[in-house]
Amino acid sequence: MASINEVKDAQNNPPEIQSNPPEIHVTVEDGRDIEPPTHDNVMGFDTISQQSFPENRNQALFSSRRSPTITFGRAVGVTRLHQVWPGKNIFLFGGRLVCGPDPRGLVLTTVSIAISTLVFCMYVGQNFSSDSALIITFAVILSSIVLFSLFLVGGTDPGIIPRNEESPLSSELLREDGRMKSRRVEANGMETKMKYCTICMIFRPPRSCHCAICDNCVERFDHHCPWVGQCIGLRNHKHYLAFLSSALLLYLYISAFCWAAIKERMSETDAGLFNVMGRMPETVALSLFSFVIIWFLGGLTTFHLYLIAINQTAYENFRLRHIGRTNPYDKGTLNNLREALCGKVPPSEVDFRAEVNPTWFPGVGKKMEGGGFGVGEKHQPTPAVEKGTGSQRFEEVDLRV
């Protein structure tokens, strides 16, 4: 039993709880006081301590607004960027595949294509005795191309823009009403805005947008496709177009042979259309499903080919038409097609497999010489990007202040 003196000592000197983060009060440059967010302990992270914060605490406290997605890797004691990335993406194979937050659309699309091909091979291709092997083989090859294109779309980084590690909360960036200023650049002689993203804490490059579903700013954002569960942007738009066109070709192929099989059965049995359709329910169901998919894919493919011809994204098409602005990026039909279809896919701006400091708050900056990622410096856009004459990708995505 503890003595009275021991109880008094315990009351006067309570034990220090190491797992709680220190209470920190931050005053930013414009004189306003800001309460830093609290961070729960995350698997694989060191306990947050006073030493975890850099001297300039503004650079560390505003980097993450959500709990990071945790994935497991083989390396023990190594924290990689995909494990602490504050977006909602799902990372597979140690960060090699970057998927959207909801895989149900991708799974549903994959299953639909696989079942369609299986039914075709089992019930339709067998009706052509002389050429059945060739017909089935071509269907399997075409289906494999479609699935490969689908997985490229769903597992490729769409063009995620690195996040800023430093909150630019200064009077220079705030308007009189307290809102963040926007920057303006010139593209093909027309002025366009670079809006500030309060989540990624960057001035987004032209043609970029923050996807609310994936919680990332994406270069040349087109749209978020629920059927592949992924954003469509600069780095996977070409794969998306390949998926649409190959899937359209597959279902045209399936539909044509379905009706050919029905017609051949009618000639063999000398029966009416409805009589034959009653004897071939699988073929009829597949042909009707293919008919619906053809209209859906045909409309999407035509629409995106039109957008490529005028060098416009789906997001820009809706937004510019809504506000009545002209397209400043149109270079002519041939140049637009050449740029979209023959251009190289640029490398990812974010290395999700890079090793990071376990006590580092999830932002993305320049890789330090000593390894890992640290607090990035402020970057200014080059004159070429300011004038709109830089590369089509606007490689200076460090338009961050």
Q: What's the quick description here?
A:
The protein is built from ten helices and twelve strands. It has 401 residues and is mainly alpha-helical.
Report on the structure:
The chain has 401 residues and is mainly alpha-helical. The chain has one domain (102-387). Helix content is 38%, strand content 9%. The chain has helices spanning 4-12, 81-84, 104-124, 132-155, 237-269, 273-279, 281-309, 314-323, 333-342, 383-387, and strands at 26-27, 33-34, 90-92, 97-99, 183-187, 190-194, 196-197, 202-203, 209-211, 216-218, 223-225, 230-232. The strands form 6 sheets. It has a two-stranded antiparallel ribbon. The chain starts with a helix and ends in a 14-residue tail after the last helix.
Give short descriptive properties of this protein.
single chain, acyltransferase, two-stranded antiparallel ribbon, EC 2.3.1.225, PFA4/ZDH16/20/ERF2-like, transmembrane helix, 401 residues, transferase, disordered C terminus, mainly alpha
What is the topology?
Blueprint: H1 4-12, E1 26-27, E2 33-34, H2 81-84, E3 90-92, E4 97-99, H3 104-124, H4 132-155, E5 183-187, E6 190-194, E7 196-197, E8 202-203, E9 209-211, E10 216-218, E11 223-225, E12 230-232, H5 237-269, H6 273-279, H7 281-309, H8 314-323, H9 333-342, H10 383-387
Antiparallel strand pairs: 1-2, 3-4, 5-6, 7-8, 9-10, 11-12
EC number: 2.3.1.225
Main location: membrane
Subcellular location: Membrane
